[in-house]
Amino acid sequence: MARILVIDDEPGIRSTVRDILEDEGHAVFLAEDGVVGLELLDAERPDLAILDVWLPRMGGLEALGEMKRRRSELEVVVVSGHGTIDMAVRALKLGAFDFIEKPLSMDRILTAVRNALEIGELRRENRNLKRAAASSVGTEPIIGGSTSMTEVRALVEQAAASDARILITGENGTGKELVARSIHLGGKRSGQPFVEVNCAAIPDGLLESELFGHERGAFTDAVSRRIGRFESADGGTLFLDEVADLSLAAQAKVLRVLQEMRFERLGSEKTISVDVRVIAATNKDIHTEISAGRFREDLYFRLAVIPIRVPPLRERGGDIGELCRYFLARAAAAGAPAREISPEGYELLASRPWPGNVRELANFVERLAVLSDERVVSAATVGKILDDGMPRRAEPLIGERYASLALAEAKELFERDYLVQKLRDYGYNMAEVADASGISPSGLHAKVKKHDIEQKR
Ligand SMILES: Nc1ncnc2c1ncn2[C@@H]1O[C@H](COP(=O)(O)OP(=O)(O)OP(=O)(O)O)[C@@H](O)[C@H]1O
Ligand SMILES: [Mg+2]
Which CATH number fits the domain that encloses residue 153? Predict the structure, then answer.
């Protein structure tokens, strides 16, 4: 099924063409002239337009030029009347896909529409393949035979087969973006755009225009029209990275759009509806953000239909060897010298706590491939590159949440966090929480009361 815009000034032709196309299962939008046609082009985002070259108000060729300028990927089939063939030829030069002569035959319309849609699909696929090939992450496999990564891969597969919203959590450099791209590429939207938004990088005041777009003149700096990320992702996937960094005001706006999948560009009253799959990610502990009042719980539920936690590398040390071999092969494929790590080298790696995540490991392996002159890298060399080459980013033992507090306060806060987490884990079943925490039910009640913890659900 496609979305088709029909622009023709004769009501009879409009309704005939609509009937033919609707019978084929397409959604059809009708415009009586180029001006209305352009409005519908923006509002309905059709895949294909059928355009009469002879139109009142704005001429067909002018309308065609403007349509192609706004949406270069739109396929246009031009309809020419008797004596307007030369106009049809000019239309082809302007980027129209095909032309049909009046009087219209049903067969001719259907064939032109089918061909145009097929070509459009091929072009789209081609563009996206090129885009995917150009970006390094996403086409890569998710490496790791550990139980936890096997589970992640199973979830990715399940997520890819559905259109459900996904929230990916995990520390920096664990592979959240790789997971997001794998879900997109594994699903039915893979031929469509994957549009990424780093929520932490957009100042609050620009967020709406970034996400929803704006019309020219909507605000002082809006010198031209801008298509928002939600709109660019139409048909595909929108990746809201660092979503927990959105301000509460921004969260409210995003929530509203997620409920309806409709929005307006800034400075416009026209409602645009889109078909977008949303995947979000954060390196923050989202439950802490929610209990601290920094993240809306209703937005969490909208985003996390399937939550996926990507575990830090220290919880899956067994994956390090496999990841190293993969990154060595990748470096060699990219032109670095072919290297292997000796068994003793791997032993040395396994004997130290790894000070980072997969990204740091990938960097380390790349350095090793370039810096070592041994084909099979010895433990001594591994140790040396580890010692002088690695940024040592020790994990803080206590979170910043506690670090600034006096000990007594920190203990209180910890107790509260602990209980909030346990209550959530056990679905607010007080007896089970008491049991799991090793305290009596009455002791638990007292603490819940003291900390003023809500016992909902
Ligand atoms: N399981 C894995 N298998 C192969 N490569 C991986 C894996 N996990 C991560 N990588 C690679 O490690 C690098 C970091 O991954 P990615 O950018 O997805 O992490 P991230 O969680 O989004 O990080 P950040 O929180 O800093 O944005 C990328 O080059 C990615 O391809
Ligand atoms: Mg990332």
Answer: 3.40.50.300
Nearest-atom index, ligand 1, CA of 143: 3
3-state SS string over 75-91? EEEEEECCCCHHHHHHH
Give the pLDDT score at 73.
Answer: 84
Q: In the structure, what pLDDT confidence band is assigned to residue 385 with cuts at 50, 70 and 90?
A: confident
Query: Domain check: are 281 and 169 in the same one?
Result: yes
H-assigned helices in 312-440: 320-333, 343-351, 358-371, 379-389, 400-403, 407-425, 430-437
Instruction: Identify which has the larger pLDDT, 149 or 394.
Output: 149
* Residue 112 domain flag: yes
181 CA closest ligand 1 atom index: 18
* φ/ψ of residue 273, rounded to 5: -110, 145
Q: Do 228 and 265 touch, CB atoms closer than 8 A?
A: yes
Q: What is the CATH number of the domain that holds 95?
A: 3.40.50.2300
Question: Which pLDDT tens digit goes with each residue over 112-147?
Answer: 999 998 888 777 766 766 655 555 444 689 999 999
Of 139, 177, 283, 286, the residue with max ligand 1 atoms within 8 A of its CB, to mutate for a pocket test, comes to 177
**Looking at the domain assignment, is residue 354 inside a domain?**
yes
289 and 217 part of one domain: yes
399 inside domain:
no
Q: Tell whether 336 and 238 lie within a shared domain.
A: no
* Ligand 1 centroid to residue 337 C-alpha, Å: 23
Question: Which ligand has the shortest distance to the CA of 196?
Answer: 2
**Pairing between β-strand 98-101 and β-strand 48-52 as defined by DSSP bridges:** unpaired
E strand or H helix at 456: none
- Mutate which of 155, 178, 283 to test ligand 1's pocket (most atoms within 8 Å of Cβ)? 178
Calpha distance 436→119 (Å, rounded): 61
pLDDT for 128 equals 64
135 inside domain: no
- Residue 442 alpha carbon to ligand 1 centre in Å: 46
Same domain, 334 and 418: no
Asked if the model's pLDDT at residue 357 lies above 90, the reply is yes
3-60 pLDDT, tens per residue? 999 999 999 999 999 999 999 999 999 999 999 999 999 999 899 999 998 887 778 8
Count of structural domains, the chain: 4
Please give all residues whose beta carbon lies within 6 A of any atom in ligand 1, as ranges: 137, 140, 142-144, 170, 172-178, 283, 358-359, 362
pTM over 0.85: no
Domain containing residue 346: CATH number: 1.10.8.60
The pLDDT value recorded for residue 242 is: 96
Which residue lies with its CA nearest to atom 15 of ligand 1? 175
Q: How far does the centroid of ligand 1 lie from the alpha carbon of residue 173, in Å? A: 5
For residues 145 and 166, give the distance between their C-alpha atoms in angstroms, rounded to a whole number.
Answer: 23
**Domain encompassing residue 122:** 3-130
